[in-house]
Structures are given as C-alpha cells and as structure tokens.
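Good morning C.,

I know you're traveling, so I'll keep this short. The sequence:
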Amino acid sequence: MPMLNLRLARPEVLIDLGRVAELAEISELDGGVSLGAMARQRSAERSDLIRERARLVQQALGHVGHPTIRNRGTVGGSVAHADPAAELPAVCVALDAELVARGVAGERTIAAEDFTTGFMTTALAPDELLVEVRIPAAAATFRTAFIEIARRHGDFALVGVAAAIALDGDGLINDARLIFTGGRSDAGAGP
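The tokens, ready to paste straight into the viewer:
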C-alpha cells in the first residue's frame, strides 16, 4: 500500500488475501514463533506468545506509526516492503528469522539477512509471495531492546536500532547483533 500511495507502483491486478486465515496465524514453532505474513501488527503487539518468545517484535511494534496503522498493517507487508526505515525487517535480522516464500515453483526459506537485496527490493521472485516469518527459539539468557529516534512518535524513524545479545553462563556476551534502521530521504520532510 505505501508504494501505491506514493504512486511508485501501479499494478494491473490486486489480489486481496485478507480472508486467507492461515496467513494470519501466530503460533508456536519448535520453541520459537511462526507469524503468518497477514498477521496484523497490532495482533503481534498484543500476543502473549510473542511477548514470551520474541519480545523484540513487540518492543519494535510500539514504534510503528499509530495504533490505527498497526490495526491494518501486516507483519509480512512491512517485511516485504523492505523500507530501510521500517522496524520489522531489522527485527527479523536481529532475531535470525527465516522468511518463507511460496510461488509457482514451490516453497523456499530465505534467511532474513539475505532477504533485503537493496532499497525496497527483496529476494522474492516476481511470482512469489512472503507467507510466513519464522523466529527461532531463543535461550533463556537472550536479551533484546529496540530504540528509535523520530521527530515525533509515529513519524518515520530518523534512526533506530534493534539489539539482540546472548549471554553465556557467566553473564558475559557471547553473541551480539545491532541492526540499524533509518535513511529515508523524506524522514526530515514536512513542516
């Protein structure tokens, strides 16, 4: 929708997937979480399962626009849009998520770090659709945070960071990921 609103995309055909219930599910997956691409951002923000197993998703979603936007926006839509200022693509990389694409040739899994290939460009083939975001189980010593700076709440981020660290048995960091967002050319536009 953002591409249509900005008149950057003019498809000949639009297909509404809103009634495909399987694409909107949020469920447990091998100790982690599976989010259908059509899961509403507000549903993920309020999900107890997400709070327990993928807290960084909720931490980031609080920075996405306003509740009205999160009520309509989907997890998969944000990820597939590949906006460098968007929160969820950064979260997916920080959490080492896998993105499931389905097309006429079948289904394939793409590592989140390989999904975005350029400015608002992804590894999806023209005949593929993002159908699922899989976030793996995290150790009990895994910690996350999301911080964002914007002119005012709900505006596009000037800069944001998704942080994920894993601690060893002694409380020392043995793995860390800092994934930055921002860089929209229109972030400073407006009155």
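Safe travels,
E.
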